[in-house]
Amino acid sequence: MPRRFAYEGPMKPTVLRFFVRGDAALAAAILAAAPVATAAQTARLPTVEQAPVALLVDLSSDQVLFARNPDRRFVPASITKVMTLMLAFEMMSEGSLSPQRSITVSDEIAAEWSGVGSSMRLEAGDVVSVHDLLIAIATGSANDASIVLAQASAGTVEQWTTRMRAKAREIGLVQSHFATPNGWPDEGATFVTARDLVTLARTMITKHPEKYATYIGRKQVSHNGFTRVNRDPLIGRFEGADGIKTGFTNEAGYGFLGSAKRADQRLVMVIAGSYSAGERNQAARGLMAWGFTNFERRSVFAKSARVGSARVQDASQASIDLVTDRAVFVNIPRDTSGELELSVQYDGPLRAPISRGEAVAVLEIKAPGIASARVPLLAAENVEKAGIFQRIANGIMGWFS
Q1: Are 287 and 53 in contact (CB under 8 A)?
Q2: Which of 209, 224, 238, 273 is disulfide-compatible with 234, CB 3.0–4.6 A?
């Protein structure tokens, strides 16, 4: 039987339950697919048939608002460059890459990449900063800038892509593989899924907000008298849009990883496999507008609110409080009725030691007519491993609880 506990949020749910999950990993619980909008909601959705892959997620709740083939692998083309940017941001934060570093373009790179596809038109002997390379990659989708950055930062392009793959695994891109820094056709060696791209966007935005604001979302970039306009279909055309990256090759079709923020709500979307830029752009604008206007957003918990507790094994205490790392909201389709059902899920009992702020559980919020929201819950305090006598005492107490 589930154990009940007090609900401390502003709304009265139908049921508030406490579950111990022992059959699935915590990461799988967070990322698991769920049903999306109701038939009535979908009927109001602008046409996205021209997009074989489409995904729209509210990052504040990790709630899927719309999904079509979110786990289908596809070729990302220049959206690959988002992983290159992410790796560069990580290296900058670690101190191993300086945005002020100057790099001299080699004869080999200039001969192979200058003017090829989207390009910064770098010439042999040009001196360019890491900062300018990142802007050219993010805004102008510069293939040559990606190669220059990769080789100068890692020694070789191959070593850079090895780091890309390692970083991708580290941040949870479980169905993606990167074999190029810039997304140039490589016979399918580079592939992603929409769900992984949302994870990549979420990590970049939440872990590197200042770098994201500095490098992502510019309207154009100029170098040596040549200007490239950002092909992002939302920037300058959609309120709150701030990136992230388009992509196109004959192999991949037209794709887009995009984000927009209004007030404290941020939506991230993926469109992939469209036959034309116009179809991709129409789908992107329509889907993002639908996500912001067709849902009622309800507040459930304030940031750092205590949600419940979890049992801890072999610890100095029998349980630990669970708190939120953000203000928690849930999207409910407009013109629907019903109450919320909340549950706390974790692989348990948890095992000490546990650090304050460590993600140890998931809050699932079920709402009528829409995918469940899944929000990480953090340990409210440090929990040390118990000594032998404390473990014996805890075991005796467990017999009577």
Answers
A1: no
A2: 238
Residue where a domain terminates, one of 232, 260, 293: 293
Percent of the chain exceeding pLDDT 70 equals 84
Q: Under the phi-then-psi rule, with left for phi > 0, alpha for psi from -120 to 50, and beta for the rest, what region is 226?
A: beta
Structure tokens at 192: 């992603």
pLDDT in tens, 194-243: 999 999 999 999 999 999 999 999 999 988 778 889 999 999 999 999 99
Burial of 226: CB neighbours in 10 Å, binned 0-12, 13-18, 19+: exposed
Secondary structure, 3-state, 181-235: CCCCCCCCCCEECHHHHHHHHHHHHHHCHHHHHHHCCCCEEEECCEEEECCCCCC
Judge whether 35 and 338 are in contact, CB under 8 Å. no
| 10 domain residue, yes or no | no
CA nearest neighbour of 73 among 182, 178, 213, 175: 175
How many other C-beta atoms can be found within 10 angstroms of the C-beta atom of residue 286? 14
3-state secondary structure of 53: strand
Which residue, among 321, 318, 342, 343, has the nearest Cα to 18 in the 3D structure? 343
Concatenate the DSSP letters of all residues of 346-371 into one string.
EESSEES-B-TT-EEEEEEEE-TTSP
Structure-block tokens of residue 126: 């040009």
Tell me, yes or no, whether 151 and 263 share the same domain: yes
Torsion, CA 250, CA 69, CA 246, CA 375, rounded to 10: -160
Residue the block writes with tokens 């949020």: 9
- The answer to the question of residue 1 being in a domain is no
- 14-38 pLDDT per residue, tens: 233 433 333 233 333 333 333 344 4
Residue 9: inside a domain, yes or no?
Answer: no
Domain boundary among 293, 311, 327: 293
What CA–CA distance (Å, rounded) separates 109 from 149? Answer: 11
- Provide the terminal-to-terminal Cα distance of the chain, rounded to the nearest Å: 14
pTM of the model: 0.84
Is residue 64 a part of any domain in this protein?
yes
Identify the domain containing residue 32 by its residue range.
15-36+299-400
